[in-house]
TrEMBL record:
Protein name: Mechanosensitive ion channel family protein
Record key words, sorted: Cell membrane, Membrane, Signal, Transmembrane, Transmembrane helix
Lineage: Bacteria, Pseudomonadati, Pseudomonadota, Alphaproteobacteria, Hyphomicrobiales
PANTHER family assigned to the protein according to its UniProt record, in alphabetical order: MECHANOSENSITIVE CHANNEL MSCK, POTASSIUM CHANNEL RELATED
Key word Secreted present: no
Length: 842
């Protein structure tokens, strides 16, 4: 009896607890602003956003001051532009982070509604307080968001201003004019002697210091640099060994072989040397071997070496001075050597100009020395171009590379002379910076562009149909992965696209760097390209799209692996029916593709709400235009779930009869017994009549009709048929075979042998064997299988006697006397004919 009060008390407490929880849930959103107001301001997202905005304003002021102070320093402006771009992204992030809270406030205010008007009943005080708190918080968020937007606009203006300053600075540097006179040359000569003396003294003191105190770091840096270069070079030879050296045994190398060796030998070997030089400088500087005044000089020396080596590899790859059969251009041997030497000489001149310029900056040499040095370089390159234009490098008409060549085409010779004379004239008129820039771009940018073009030609040649199979890499893939011609041809397309990507991703950044861009510019451009590409009002992230594609491919491959694992390990070992296995595999496949698509689209960051209006507008048209497809799709799902037939069943649908080979969500593939594949839409199989001979099992009845002559003993015939059937092991004993006496036919006694088989697929063979045995046994027993017979009865009527009315007509009597008259009815003739029927049953 004491349990009842305790139980009532417990129920009452639980009821109060549920009611209190409901009240707290209703007031939670209203108390959230109050709790936020009572909490420390530093813990609220709004306060954090305010502090970040204040901090961004301070950074913007510092950037503006830095731009004013470094208006003439391009390197400093590049760093400031990078910081401004980072600040712009940070400000946008502040505004984006406040949007979810602002959306919550708007939704809650819409739920609460407007305050009551005059004359309406007053609302609860807690609702009024909640509305006021939310409105105040919304006003604060709008204020912070407005500050962020204004700050973002200001930062964008600053970035544009820096870009314009850099463009103007670049143009001023190129178009700056310097007076060229004899006194300038004299001053430059004296400055050169003084600078050389100071540099040699500084270099000697540094070398002595390094040998005494930095010997071990020096050798360690050299060893690590060589190791890095050797690793890259050895790996390159293992992967591209056949493309790095020319086979002297090949008499007539193919065009694709010449292109590939020219491109890969230039690229791989130049990259290997570049790795050696870059890592050497990095380790020397990291081990404190280089002094601040020597480090730029060593870096310039490494850059000059890399430039000369690259041009040398380019000349050897394109012109092949000593191997005319590998040459990519139609030049004579003498022409190829002369043009190669001229290009290499121009590269050496540019490299020395760059090296001496760096030494001058390190030694703080006067401007006049830089001007004269660039003048000399421009004059030398101009003279080289003019001298080359008068040569005879073109291949002779007979195609002999050793024969004297022909002159340049007229247009090419004129271009070389105009460019060379223009360089000389520009330098002599005082525009030394412009002349030096053009001369540098002629050799370096030209070499990069031609190498990139050769790479694109290589990719095009490899991706051409049935061209990749002749390469070494294709033969390796054939041996290693047992690929067929079609797969190799498809791999050639992939390899060609990869070569395109390598040529563009290496060549375009190099060209941009040569034309005045900095590494920071390329980083900023790549970041914007991969993270935010705006097309109208849509923002696309290439990096997000690539990530989405990779995730889709990963989930799809995981789905295929799960399908194979379930089918080959779980269901196969459990002896699951083939149709069930097919349904499970198909269902998992479609489910996995759907999940992969959702994950890929979500990772790509594509906002599908932008397409909602278009989808709603097209929904009606899609509903009418694709109703058959949707019907087949739904029918396919019903077939996979309900399984009225499965893969391997013997079905009859309309005019199609055969074995089910595949069931998809749109159509079902039925293979007839003549090996013809019939694709039947699933809606027809759902809405029409479908006969399934093997729905639950493969047991089926088979019949053999037999006809014998009337003189045969019916019981003997039945016994013979049952006896022959009992000798066949494939015939089931339960139900047992039996013979049906069907009818008394027009010319035979008709029987039908009926028996059951465990597998309907054996019916044809069993029936054939049984027919042969029945025929042999009937012949042995003297039982006749009659031929079809047909009875024909022909009735012929007698002619009536002619009257005497024709006696007065002698001519007619004479004529009629010649024709015999039949006065009595002729007897009926009966004709019985037997006809053979080739298409008889049994």
């Amino acid at each position: 009896m004491r349990l009842r009060p305790i139980l009532l008390r417990t129920i009452l407490l639980l009821t109060l607890a549920v009611a209190g929880a409901h009240f707290k849930g209703a007031a939670a959103f209203a108390q959230e602003p109050q709790a936020a107001a009572q909490a420390p301001l530093a813990d609220t997202p709004l306060d954090q956003a305010t502090k970040e905005i204040d901090k961004a304003k301070v950074q913007l002021t510092a950037l503006q001051d830095g731009v004013k102070q470094n208006a003439d320093n391009d390197d400093a402006l590049v760093g400031l532009a990078t910081k401004a771009d980072e600040l712009s992204r940070a400000v946008i992030t502040i505004s984006v982070n406040l949007r979810p809270r602002l959306d919550q406030i708007k939704n809650r205010l819409a739920e609460i509604g407007d305050p009551p008007k005059d004359g309406q009943p007053p609302e609860a005080e807690i609702v009024t307080q909640e509305r006021n708190a939310l409105a105040a918080e919304r006003a604060q968020i709008n204020a912070v968001t407005g500050d962020a937007e204004n700050l973002s606009i200001t930062v964008t203006k600053l970035v544009n201003e820096v870009t314009e300053m850099r463009r103007r600075l670049f143009a001023d540097t190129l178009l700056r004019r310097t007076e060229i006179s004899v006194s300038v040359l004299d001053d430059a000569g004296g400055a050169f002697v003084h600078e050389a003396s100071e540099f040699l003294q500084a270099l000697s003191s540094w070398a002595t210091f390094v040998w005494k105190f930095k010997r071990f770091p020096l050798f360690a840096a050299i060893f690590l640099s060589l190791a890095s270069a050797l690793i890259l070079l050895s790996g390159s030879y293992r992967l591209f060994g056949s493309y790095l050296r020319r086979d002297e045994a090949v008499e007539n190398p193919s065009y694709i072989g010449r292109l590939s060796i020219a491109f890969w030998s230039t690229l791989i070997r130049t990259l290997a040397l570049s790795v050696l030089l870059v890592t050497s400088f990095f380790f020397l500087n990291g081990f404190n071997v280089l002094r601040p005044d020597i480090a730029p000089v060593i870096g310039a020396l490494f850059g000059a070496i890399g430039l000369v080596y690259f041009v040398g590899r380019f000349v050897n790859a394109i012109f092949a001075p000593n191997e005319p059969r590998w040459r990519l251009v139609r030049l004579s041997n003498l022409g190829a050597r002369s043009i190669g030497y001229c290009l290499l000489a121009m590269a050496v001149v540019n490299a020395l100009d760059y090296l001496f310029g760096t030494i001058g900056e390190a030694m703080s040499s006067p401007l006049v020395l830089t001007v004269v040095r660039s003048l000399i370089a421009a004059l030398i390159i101009g003279l080289i171009l003019i001298s080359v234009s008068f040569g005879k490098p073109m291949l002779a008409k007979n195609g002999d590379p050793d024969a004297p060549g022909r002159h340049w085409p007229r247009g090419m010779a004129i271009i070389l002379r105009v460019v060379g004379a223009g360089l000389i004239l520009t330098a002599l008129t005082g525009y030394v910076g412009l002349a030096r820039f053009v001369a540098t771009q002629l050799i370096i940018t030209g070499a990069v562009v031609v190498t990139m073009y050769v790479g694109l030609l290589s990719g095009k040649a490899i991706s051409r149909q049935e061209s990749f199979g002749d390469t070494f890499f294709a033969r390796f893939l054939t041996r290693r992965f047992k690929l067929g011609p079609v797969a190799i041809d498809q791999a050639g397309l992939v390899v060609g696209l990869a070569i395109y990507a390598v040529a563009l991703l290496v060549g375009i950044p190099l060209i941009l760097l040569l034309w005045g861009f900095h590494v920071q510019d390329l980083q900023m451009l790549a970041y914007r390209l991969f993270t935010e590409v705006r097309l109208g009002g849509i923002s696309i992230s290439l990096l997000g799209i690539c990530t989405g594609i990779l995730l889709f491919a990963g989930v799809y491959l995981l789905t295929r692996w799960l399908q194979r694992w379930l089918d080959g390990n779980v269901m196969a070992r459990s002896h699951v029916d083939l149709g069930v296995r097919n349904s499970v595999k198909t269902g998992i496949g479609y489910l996995g593709v759907g999940i992969a698509a959702i994950i890929g689209v979500s990772a790509a960051g594509i906002d599908l709400s932008s397409f909602a209006l278009v989808a709603s507008a097209l929904s009606v048209g899609i509903g009418f235009g694709l109703q058959n497809i949707v019907s087949n799709f739904v029918s396919g799902l019903i077939l996979l779930v309900e399984r009225p037939f499965k893969v391997g069943d013997h079905v009859v649908s309309g005019t199609a009869e055969g074995i089910v080979k595949r069931i998809s969500v749109r159509a079902t593939e039925i293979e007839t017994f003549r090996k013809q594949s019939i694709i039947v839409p699933n809606s027809e199989l759902i809405n029409g009549l479908v006969g399934n001979w093997t729905h639950r099992n493969k047991i089926g009845r088979s019949e053999i009709p037999v006809s014998v002559a009337y003189n045969a003993d019916p019981q003997q015939v039945m016994d013979i048929l049952l006896e022959l059937t009992a000798k066949i092991p494939l015939v089931m004993r339960n139900p047992e075979p039996h013979v049906e006496f069907l009818r008394f036919g027009p010319y035979s006694l008709d029987f039908e042998l009926r028996f059951f088989l465990a597998d309907m697929g054996d019916g044809m063979a069993v029936r054939n064997n049984l027919r042969i045995e029945i025929l042999k046994r009937f012949k042995a027993e003297g039982i006749e299988i009659p031929l079809p017979q047909t009875d024909l009865t022909i009735h012929r009527e007698a002619r009536p006697a002619l009257a005497d009315a024709g006696r007065d007509q002698p001519n007619e009597q004479e004529n009629s006397a010649d024709t015999p008259m039949e006065e009595e009815e002729q007897p009926v003739r009966q004709l019985r004919s037997k006809t053979a029927d080739g298409n008889r049953k049994g």
